[in-house]
Design goal:
152 residues; mainly alpha; two-stranded antiparallel ribbon; Arc Repressor Mutant, subunit A; elongated
Length: 152
């Protein structure tokens, strides 16, 4: 068993080291740490919400509801609400009442929000390159991860 750098590199390891989920989780932690280092003042959950608002905004400019954003970002309502409040306080998005249902809030990115999102997307692309590289195996990995994520 080689424990260089405190890591068990024994390929016959038992326990969590045999679980793909264990390695997926740890790879995601590495990617997130690299990504967050380039996000500036934006946290990863804030990036997630900004991305969701952008992706869910219709071509006609129709704004997504707060619930649609929470669902898309896979956040619970309370967490999404807190993140959205911070983004609103930072003037990165605005909440507007739905014209057809006063109980719903529609979310719209401001110009500052779109600018922050572009910065975050650049950081995520750099993290992808740094963590995953750029060879053909990256496409295989991407498709395998997409298939897993789309099962839910």
């Amino acid at each position: 068993m080689d424990t260089s750098a405190g890591r068990n590199t024994d390929t016959t390891a038992r326990g969590p080291h045999t679980s793909p989920g264990y390695w997926l989780h740890h790879a995601a932690l590495v990617w997130r740490q690299v990504c967050e280092s380039g996000l500036g003042q934006t946290t990863y959950p804030q990036f997630n919400v900004l991305s969701a608002v952008s992706l869910l905004t219709g071509r006609d400019g129709s704004a997504p509801t707060q619930q649609q954003v929470a669902d898309f970002a896979r956040m619970d309502r309370m967490m999404a609400s807190k993140v959205i409040r911070v983004l609103q306080d930072r003037a990165l998005l605005v909440r507007a009442p739905d014209p057809h249902d006063a109980r719903r809030q529609r979310l719209v990115l401001t110009e500052q929000g779109r600018s922050a999102l572009r910065t975050c997307i650049d950081a995520a692309r750099k993290a992808d390159e740094e963590v995953f590289g750029s060879g053909p195996e990256v496409e295989v990995l991407r498709e395998a991860l997409r298939a897993i994520a789309e099962r839910r």
